[in-house]
Specification:
The protein is of the alpha/beta class. The protein contains 21 helices and 13 strands. A hairpin with a 2-residue loop joins strand 10 and strand 11.
Amino acid sequence: MTALKYSSLVLDLGGVLLNTPKVPVDLSPRKVKDALDMPTWHEYETGKLPQHECYDRVAKTFGLDVQVWAETMLKLTVGQEPNTELIAAIRELKSVYPGLRVICLSNIPEPAFELLRELIEGWGIMDQVHVSAISGFRKPNTAAFRDFLSSTHNTSESCIFVDDRIENVISAQCLGFQALLFQNTVSTVAAIHNLLGDPVARGMTYLKQHAGNLFSMTDDGQVHKDNFSQLLILQNTGDKSLVSLEKRGHTWNYFIGEPRLYGTTYANDSDTTCLALTILDDVPEEEKAYAMNAILANLSPDGLPYTWFDDKRPRLCHCICANVYRFFHLQGQAGQLPGVYEHLCRILRTGAFALGSRYYANPDWFLYTLSDLCGRRPLDTALQEMRELLGARIQDRMGGDDDVLGAALRLLSAQSLAVKNQRDLTTVRDAQQLDGGWEMVWLWQTARGAIKMGSRGVITAMAVRGIQNAESML
C-alpha cells in the first residue's frame, strides 16, 4: 500500500466531535461565552488554576451565583452530544486508510475531560488524546502545537488539523499543518478524503461504477442521452468501456435515440461529427472526406461553418467553429476553410470569446478546443499566432473564479500548452466528492439558455485527466 501523505488526523472536541447541547440553563449563551473566553478560564483549562478558584473568579467578575455557574458548567459538559455522523465517517476513514492515526487536540479543563473520557473512549476512533489540562498549553498559542508535535512524535506537515475556531486553524496552518476550518460534517469529510486518497483512482472508480450510464441531465431533471458528452468522456479517459455511442449515417447526431427535444427535431451537426472524427481512431478516410464535404456545403457568407446540416437552421457558434477548424487542420485541410483561422485568432485577440457562445455559456470551452489543437501540433508554425494568443488568454484567466467546469477547462487548456496551472488545479482537486466523482456542472445549453444540460461524467473525466496530467508534469 502507498504510504499516506498525512499520517495523523488531528481533531478538536467541542464544535467538531461534540456539539453543545440545547439544555435549559439559567445563564444567557452570551454570558457563558464571555466567561469561557476570559483569561481566568484559560488558566483553568491549562491546569494553572483549581476549579473552585476559577469558578469563584468567574462568579465575581460577572456577578453570578457560584452555584448557578457550577450547575451550568455541569449541564453543558455532561450534555455534550456526539457528532455521530462525523464519528462514523472517521471510523470508515480508518478502515480505508489503516495507517492513519486519529488524535484529539482540545482545550478542556481536567474535570470536564474526566467526565467525558469514557464517552470519547467509547467511540473507538482515538489513538491518542492530547488536552490542554495535561499539556499546560492551549490553542491557538504556538506552544500548544509544538508540544503536541513533540509528544505525539509528529511533524506538522504530516498532520491534517480540523477545528471550528478560525484562530486555531490559522495558527496551525502557519506552523505547517494542513488545516481545515470545520463548518459542517459533509464538507469536512469530503475534504479529508481528498487529502488522503488518490484523486485519480477515486475518480476512475466512480466512472467505472457508472460505466454505460454516464448520461447528462437537463435542468428540469430529465435524463438526456447524447453522443457529445460520451465523446468528451472518451476523449479524456481513452476508455471506450465507459461510454455508449450511437451513429447513424456518414455524419453524427448530437442525440442518442430520437433526435428530438421538447418538440424540436434536430439534424446531424458539425460539432458532434468533428469531435467524433477527431478522437475516434477507427474512422475510414472516406467517411472523414464525406463529413468535410458536408461541412463545406454548409457555410455562412463569411465562410464560417454552420452548426446543423440543415439549410433551414443557419446557426453560428464560435466554439463549434473552433471544433470544426481543429478537425480540418488535423486532416491537413485547413486551407479549405480560408479565413476561419484569422476569425478564431481575432476572437482571441479581442477577447470576444469571454461572452460565451450561443450553445456554450462558459467561455473557456473556446480555449479548451483550440488549445487541444495546438497541443496535438506543438511544432506547427502555422498555429504560432493562435498558440501565442491562447497562452496569453489562459494566463490571464488562470484561477479567475472557482467555477469547477471553468477551472477544469482552463487546467486542461494550460496543460495542452505545457503550462502549469496550480490555481485551477487546486479548485478542481478540492471539488471531488465523497463518492469519488465531481458534482454535476452545466456544460451547454439550447439557444439562449432555454434548456441546460449537465453531467457528472464529463466533469469527472476532465478532472481526472487534469490531475493526472499535473502529476506527470511534476
